[in-house]
Write a structure and sequence with these properties.
mainly alpha; 3-stranded antiparallel beta sheet; 12 strands
Length: about 1300
């Protein structure tokens, strides 16, 4: 940059420095430098002349007003631009003077006079220039001055100046109208000159244009030979030639601000406004739109801000909306390019209205392209990624490969084998889980932020939206620095019917997600002008008149605009000029050209003018949607003898279709829609049927699933009316059955249901008679899909149809089981009644009621039978083959959870029957559930080791049978029993395994229960409360998102306890709200849990009244359980402690009895189970019982034992509680010094646990009761509480 503060600028030195950049033989080597230099010179010249005086500074000032108040006239403006143009010319030619052609234009009248500058009447204007412009002044010394009339036709006198160059005069002799110049010997002095201009004669606009173009061509070439880019040559020419007024129309400059703006464009966008156009190429290819970026800077910035917020941790997504053709995809792709440039990963997918039946085709395509890119990665990096993926997903990779076939390209051959178990509780939930794990592995392995862009969301399917929603929900659990961002685009005028997408947005909003909506409207006039300026590589001022015409005809719709420009180019109204090396146009004809009001009609008109075979090929392509594999087109050509490839090449040349990555794509959806609308409806159905049947035969021959879905979709689009051969009705129904089964294998129950539904549609009236097996299978599988989709209305209709038409009871069983499964989610009692009824017809009688004695007797008999069979024999038992018995086991397994909720007395009967059927008829996939529940019952009756045996047997059976459908439930049940055998901290880790296995099977119910139980166990393990708080919050979000109320209320209840102990006043849910919610949910187990935790808090915070009230309430609502659960251990321990305290206050023997009963349970679990988990609890209860019985010496012994055992086994929270209870014991005995030591230890341990609210209450008690004693206050404060722990002191009472 030249120093603008210098008194004088040595231009010769500057030229020497820049000469290497100015005069270079190879074009465009330094064009950016040249534009910068011109702009810098403009700034410096203004600053330099400003230092010499305000009047001369006005020459280069872009403003109209001078410091002395004078306002420039148009002539004075042009004089200033002209003078600067001369200097720039000298600058870029290394000091050469402009040629004569650049200094005058011949007049049609033959006078040959040239107007350069004017001296206005009564005022002489002096032009002062720096010495670095001396060459320009020397060149001006050849000017000859003569008197002429006023330039503007007024009375002021001006001088006409002409130039004589001998060589130019000789050349001019050959012109049709020779220029006549008069010469004078008078020369202006150095540093100033007086210039006048003569009046030009009027001439026709056409003659002016021809003269101007001739002069321009010669003048530009003189600069062009110096290697200066043509746009810069044009700019300098237009500056110098502005002195000729309106002779050359809009190209000349009228204000310095326009010069500045054009130079800024050359600097900011050199590839558009400074680089030379390849006119030879453009003359053959025509106007190119592939690099077009519409003016959406504001919207683009909004997307970037949303993305940046997501990187900083905000849960956010973005949606681009607008009518068709407003540039949504263009904006999204530009946004994607910016993400990729910053090292992020941008995945692209597109929903297609004609291909919705393909399972997860849109979402899968985004990941398929990524897998193709991965296949080209370095082998070592790829191997690491594959290893992590296989570790995360295991054999479940098979299901992901079914949806993303290209994933198999990067996996080893033996990693995608078919699992033995194809069934699962909810296949779509399983697939959501697998996609989430895939994203997690990608993010962790490559260390990048992931963005998923889905185009045309208005055509999305519910299954794909569910995956996207799940990806967003789980994105918050990605490791720090890794994010998942979703961007969607849609036509807002077509989104009303897409309930699944808006439901997802609503759910995410409740969960705290922010949605940024970017609405694209049609462009205004200025935006259209900027777009056309970029497209034509011309300054906005030069295309303004054309852009106004285009705007009026297209209303600013970007798609309409670009197609109109292509049409104008094709018709020769917008063309490339080989002489001027730029785009030009015929404005009058464009203005008069008639255009349709809708872009679709424009497409139709363009297509109609094409040859017939091109129209036919485009019509064929449109039947398959926005894009289709080239292999499909080749297959149609071969099988139906159609001519498609060559005509489609013509369509590609016309800009209607593109061919990319082995697929044909319409350049825009509106083109496909326009072509498809041109086909008659009857012909359309016929085409779909013909194409589908042809492709179906091929797909079955080669076993291509993708081609199968494409084929059957075409047949279904044709509908039954297009079928010509009656035999084809059942054939097409069977094809739909095949496609539906494949979709179920790919976990897309929505698409599968669509195929089964279409298959039923193709069946004729007597299909239950003529095609019974086909009809039964279609209806049965449709029922299963309806269950997975939670479509109860369709499920009811289907079940009723099967029950009316099934030939045998066995044929009804499949649908009956589906119906019972649906009832378990809404009408549990009805589900139990329905299940018992079906079981009775299967020969399995379950009574509607049973006494406790009968149940106990049945359990003992079953245990006796099993004791005679070693585990090894049970694991290798024969398999169950009787269809009725296998079905009965499925009904019994479904009943286990239901009867536990509404008829717990029946649970032993159901469990015993499952074990009995297994021993009698062999192992079934459901046998493990029977053994798991039976183990829990044996443990509850006191045989901990015996119960542990059967729960471990159940886990082994799951592994042997690969029963992933029930694995989550079995692991949860076995871990409950394991908690009484192994250390609680170790056993809890199995729940993580249970959660992952349940999610992989799509079993949300048991995944949530495993998560909730894991968090609750963290609390009882004595994990630091702040860590437990984080785990509760994280898992609570997961459970809440899935609306699992049982697990959620369980989790929230314990979470409230954690928050109360920490001392944070912000409760997750209020006490009353939680209680009322549980009562409304009609789950007595949950209500008992609520009162138990109220009891726990009142015990810890020494609130006797509340403790007694909650103990009474707990005993009142407690529901007996036949299965031993880990929560029973904590309940037994706390209720026993509370009972002994109440007994000491009331001397009511009832409470002593309750305390002893629960103490005996703890003792049994210690003796038969885990010393680690129960020894310290047993010791403490013995101490409390001894204290209640006034056996103080025994109490002292066992208090100390309990403290030591709790510390040894790492239960810091119960060590704290034990120390406090021992302290109260000694305090009440009057031994304050010993009591103080125990209080101090209790305070220390509560502090370590993180129960800061409890520490405050304990501190207050010690301050009240130990002041003035041997132990000082300073000693009591030896464990200071941080400021953070002192917050929310008003929460000390915790609302109890």
């Amino acid at each position: 940059m030249i120093d603008g503060d210098a008194a004088e600028v040595d231009w010769e030195a500057i030229r020497d420095e820049q000469n290497c950049a100015l005069v270079i033989p190879e074009r465009n080597c330094c064009i950016d430098t040249e534009a910068e230099l011109a702009f810098d010179y403009l700034d410096v010249e203004c600053a330099q002349i400003a230092s010499e005086g305000s009047n001369t500074a006005d020459i280069f000032n872009a403003n109209n007003a001078h410091s002395n108040g004078h306002v420039d006239t148009p002539t004075e403006k042009m004089q200033r631009i002209y003078s600067l143009g001369l200097v720039l010319y000298e600058l870029f030619t290394g000091g050469k003077s402009p040629p004569l052609d650049l200094l005058f234009v011949s007049c049609s009248g033959g006078t040959g006079l040239v107007s350069i500058c004017a001296q206005l009447e009564g005022q002489e204007m002096e032009l002062t220039v720096n010495r670095h412009a001396r060459a320009v002044i020397d060149f001006g010394n050849s000017l000859v001055i003569s008197n002429e009339s006023d330039l503007n036709g007024n009375d002021s006198v001006c001088r006409s100046v002409t130039l004589i160059h001998d060589n130019q005069l000789q050349a001019d002799e050959s012109l049709d109208e020779p220029r006549i110049c008069s010469v004078s010997s008078k020369r202006p002095s150095i540093g100033s000159r007086q210039l006048t201009s003569a009046r030009r004669s009027d001439s026709s606009s056409r003659q002016k244009r021809l003269d101007s173009q001739t002069t321009r061509s010669m003048s530009v070439e003189s600069l062009d030979t110096k290697g200066i880019p043509r746009p810069l040559c044009e700019l300098i020419y237009n500056m110098i030639d502005c002195i000729n007024g309106d002779l050359i129309g809009n190209d000349t400059y009228t204000d310095m601000s326009l010069v500045t703006h054009d130079l800024e464009l050359m600097i900011d966008k050199p590839s558009i406004f400074l680089h030379d156009l390849d006119v030879v190429k453009l003359s053959s290819t025509g106007l190119e739109l592939h690099d077009t970026v519409f003016v959406r800077d504001k919207e683009f910035a909004s997307l970037q801000r949303s993305y940046q917020r997501s990187l900083s941790g905000t849960s956010e997504l973005a949606i681009i909306t607008g009518v068709s053709g407003t540039g949504k995809s263009t904006l999204a792709n530009k946004f994607g390019d910016s993400i990729t440039a910053d090292g992020g990963l941008f995945l692209r997918g597109k929903f297609d209205q004609m291909q919705q039946a393909k399972p997860f085709s849109a979402v899968a395509s985004a990941f398929s392209d990524y897998c193709d890119d991965l296949a080209r990665e370095e082998k070592s990096r790829l191997a690491s990624f594959v290893a992590q993926l296989q570790k995360a997903l295991g054999t479940d990779l098979y299901y992901l490969v079914q949806v993303i076939p290209s994933l198999s390209r990067i996996l080893v051959e033996d990693s995608t084998h078919t699992p033995l178990d194809h069934d699962c509780v909810n296949a779509q939930e399983r697939l959501q889980y697998l996609f989430c794990r895939l994203v997690e592995v990608i993010s962790c392995c490559w260390g990048c932020h992931i963005t998923l862009f889905m185009d045309d969301v208005q055509w999305s399917d519910s299954a794909s939206i569910s995956i996207i929603g799940q990806l967003l929900k789980t994105s918050r659990s990605l490791k720090a620095g890794k994010t998942f961002f979703f961007l969607g685009s849609c036509r807002d005028d077509e989104m009303e019917s897409n309930d699944s997408f808006w439901n997802m947005i609503d759910v995410l909003s409740v969960l705290g997600f922010k949605t940024t909506t970017v609405k694209l409207d049609c462009m205004n006039k200025d935006a259209v002008n900027e777009v056309m300026s970029n497209l034509l590589h011309l300054s906005p001022r030069l295309v303004r008149s054309l852009s106004d015409i285009v705007y009026n005809k297209t209303k600013g719709n970007p798609l309409f605009l670009t197609r109109m420009l292509l049409a104008l180019n094709r018709e020769g109204l917008l063309y490339i000029s080989l002489t001027r090396h730029r785009w030009e146009w015929d404005e009058e004809k464009i203005q008069s050209r008639e255009l349709p009001e809708d872009v679709a009609l424009l497409f139709i008109n363009s297509i109609n003018r094409l040859p017939k075979d091109v129209n036919v090929a485009l019509g064929t392509l449109s039947c398959f949607g926005a894009s289709i594999d080239c292999d499909v087109i080749n297959a149609l050509e071969a099988d139906l003898f159609l001519k498609l490839t060559e005509p489609l090449n013509v369509a590609i040349a016309e800009g209607l279709v593109t061919k990319l990555d082995g697929r044909y794509h319409f350049c825009h959806d509106r083109i496909q829609e326009a072509v498809y609308s041109m086909i008659e409806e009857q012909d359309c159905c016929s085409h779909h049927n013909k194409y589908g049947m042809s492709l179906m035969d091929r797909s079955l021959r080669i076993g291509n699933p993708c081609l199968l879905f494409t084929a059957i979709t075409q047949v279904n689009l044709g509908g039954p009316a297009a079928v010509q051969d009656p035999k084809h009705y059942s054939l097409i129904a069977s094809y739909n059955l095949i496609a539906g089964k494949k979709a179920m294998e790919m976990s897309d129950f929505s698409s599968a249901f669509s195929f089964f539904d279409h298959g039923i549609t193709f069946l004729r009236k007597k299909h239950w008679h003529d095609n019974y097996d086909l009809s039964l299978e279609l209806f049965n599988l449709a029922a299963k899909c309806a269950l997975a989709m939670k479509n109860r209305k369709c499920l009811t209709i289907i079940c009723d149809e099967v029950l009316r038409n099934a030939h045998t009871f066995e044929d009804c069983l499949y649908t009956a089981f589906i119906a019972m499964s649906a009832l378990t989610h809404s009408m549990v009692s009805e589900s139990v009644r329905h299940g018992i009824s079906i079981l009775s017809q299967l020969g399995v009688d379950i009574p509607h009621s049973s006494s406790k004695e009968d149940a106990l007797k049945l359990i003992v008999q079953t245990q006796s039978m099993l004791n005679d069979i070693p585990d090894e024999i049970l694991l290798n038992y024969r398999l169950m083959t009787d269809y009725k018995k296998v079905t009965a086991m499925k009904f019994l397994a479904k009943l286990e959870n239901s009867v536990q909720q509404v008829k717990p007395a029946l649970q032993p009967l159901v469990t015993a029957e499952m074990v009995k059927l297994t021993i009698t008829h062999g192992l079934s996939p459901m046998s493990a559930i029977g053994f798991a529940y039976f183990g829990g019952m044996i443990a509850e009756l006191g045989d901990i080791r015996g119960g542990y045996r059967f729960t471990m047997l159940a886990k082994a059976l799951v592994n042997k049978m690969q029963s992933s459908e029930i694995a989550g439930e079995v692991i949860w049940l076995s871990t409950e029993s394991l908690s009484f055998i192994e250390p609680l901290q170790t056993a809890n880790e199995y729940r993580i395994q249970g959660e992952n296995i349940a999610m992989a099977a799509g079993d949300i119910h048991w995944a949530c229960l495993n998560k909730a139980s894991y968090c609750v166990a963290l609390f009882w393990c004595g994990v630091k409360l702040l860590c437990a708080k984080e785990a509760f919050a994280r898992n609570g979000r997961y459970i809440e998102e899935r609306h699992h109320l049982t697990a959620l209320y369980y989790l929230r209840t314990v979470e409230r306890t954690v928050m109360a102990l920490i001392g944070e006043g912000n409760e997750i849910i209020s006490d009353d709200t939680l209680t009322q919610s549980v009562i409304k949910n009609k789950n007595p187990y949950q209500l008992a849990i609520i009162y138990f935790h109220k009891l726990f808090l009142s015990l810890v915070f020494n609130d006797y009244c509340e403790m007694k009230k909650n103990a009474e309430k707990f005993i009142e609502v407690q529901v007996p359980s036949w299965v031993l659960l880990s929560i029973h251990a904590g309940q037994s321990f706390i209720v026993s402690l509370a009972s002994f305290q109440i007994y000491r206050e009331t001397q009511d023997r009832f409470w002593a009895k309750i305390g002893k009963e629960y103490k005996e349970k703890i003792t049994t679990w210690k003796d038969q189970g885990s010393l680690w988990n129960f020894e310290h609890r047993s010791f403490l209860l013995v101490a409390e019982e001894s204290y209640s019985d006034r056996n103080f010496e025994n109490a002292k012994i066992y208090y100390d034992k309990a403290v030591s055992s709790a510390g040894q086994h790492k239960f810091v929270h119960e060590e704290a509680l034990t120390c406090e209870l021992a302290a109260y014991f000694y305090f009440n005995q009057g031994r304050k010094s010993t009591a103080f030591k125990y209080f101090k230890s209790a305070k220390e341990k509560f502090q370590e646990w993180g129960a800061f609210a409890k520490v405050r209450t304990l501190q207050a008690f010690m301050e009240r009761n130990f002041l003035g004693e041997d132990c000082s206050l300073a000693e009591m404060n030896s464990f200071p509480i941080s400021n953070a722990q002192r917050l929310n002191s008003d929460a000390r009472k915790r609302g109890l």
